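Problem statement: downstream parser choked on a complex file, so we are re-checking the raw output for the SAJ run. The parser issue turned out to be on our end (a line-ending mismatch), but while we're here, posting the original submission so the record is complete.
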Amino acid sequence: MGDVFSGRIAILGMGYIGLPTAVALATRGIEVVGVDTDEERVSAIARGEVPFVEPDLAIGVSGAVAMGRLKATTETPEADAYIIAVPTPFNGDRTANLSYVEAAAKQIAPHLRHGNIVVLESTSPPGTTEKVGRWISELRPDLRMPGDGETSADIFVAHCPERVLPGRIMIELVTNDRVVGGLTQQCAERAASIYRVFAKGEILVTDAASAEMAKLVENAYRDVNIAFANEISLISETLHIDVWEVIRLANRHPRVNILSPGPGVGGHCIPVDPWFIVAAAPEQSPLIRTARQVNDRRPHHVAEQVAEKARRFRTPTIACLGLTFKANVDDIRESPAIEVVGLIAGALPDIEILLSDPYVDEVPPLLSEYSNLRMERAHAAVDRADIVVLLVEHEPFKAIRNTRLNGKVVYDTRGAWR
Ligand code: SAJ
């Protein structure tokens, strides 16, 4: 067991990763300052409120704020360690957009003092942690940077990719193993001391590029495996075989674990991160690229299937259940369900489409151009519909009784009603 950090930590980015990490540290006695450019978000956190739904997070935030351990601000403060947890979306050409990371590094730079630690948690292409070091060094030529000759550096820079699963963040933050890759061994060791504060999993110390790549590979692995399931689904449909039965049986083999087909792969990580690998080594990544294409094609396939079912009726009513990117979360970013609804609404403009999601109150802005969409409670939507499409297997939807679905055309894209 190595050193355990004590001191003050500033976390830049109070999103799905930054805020839970702030709570994990603050509730274990660390003084944490959460920094975000969004003033509304900052004032919500300062009041002890959570700007998004994540189990057990709300109680953690209100407790940490009440104890005086967690503060929120729009200004980067002085601290002993800085964690960067800002988004890394992709550009139009599917390369990583590092502007938020760069802005964070440049905000931190003026405050750095001898002995400070800077950790990049944002998912990033290989080489980004080094860039963070360079951006800092450009603004602070007075600091001795890690790897600059034999003498000990003034600051320590490392990458510790987040790995938590939305919906289980507060649990996985503590239980998952962490990979900490430093610009030097000493950087990794110093950064590891932060995670020892709350992580019960193992802390695996490595170099920065390996840590960056390991994170991307984890998500690409999942994407490729979901693509495999989606391809098996397509094949089974063509051959008139029940894909769920095939997967259930195949998964009884001791070394087979096929994931679930669905309407596509959403969220802010898995549809994005594999492209960082493809961009870094395009010639060497045909499988990863194809998996992305297979998964990106899913919403179109599901929408085409719905349109085909709709042709059996004159003017059917369609109920689409679920809008978020996956079950039991309120996150609609990169949601394949929303893409499916948009495609159906565009293809069938004269047909009424009822939408229902326990986590979404209004028709999402991405769908505002369609006038044939209306939010409805799940039971009412199902009762009025001729065609029921299950897009997200939220618990309340799973509980819908078979008798309620009797006599309707049911398209269960998640295999939840089997
Ligand atoms: N999905 C399927 N079939 C499955 C599993 C998932 O269609 O069998 C779909 C989901 O519905 C969703 C998408 O894939 O649309 C992604 O969901 P997910 O639950 O697989 O993953 P995320 O995006 O919530 O979180 C992932 C996790 N990565 C891995 O499991 C390797 C998480 O640990 C990462 O921290 C997170 O990405 C991230 O932030 O990178």
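For whoever reads this later: The two ends are 48 Å apart (CA to CA).
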